[in-house]
Amino acid sequence: xxxxxxxxxxxxxxxxxxxxxxxxxxxxxxxxxxxxxxxxxxxxxxxxxxxxxxxxxxxxxxxxxxxxxxxxxxxxxxxxxxxxxxxxxx
Length: 90
Hints:
single chain; alpha/beta; 3 helices; 29% helix; 30% strand; globular
């Protein structure tokens, strides 16, 4: 269960594999009415929630650390699930 109604998000990638998902997530979030900015540094102390992407080929694990939402695992599955949620499929 992932809440996408913050209004603003920042996105940060922890590895090169996750960088390719930044624009996909930005597009999906913009479509849902959220403002998105891609950051070069991780900062969990900001006022705007930060999605921290870490791609691997395992299942998705979503956790929270201060104002960061940590998304670890198969980002293909996460992007698909996020898209389905926005379009009301799930």
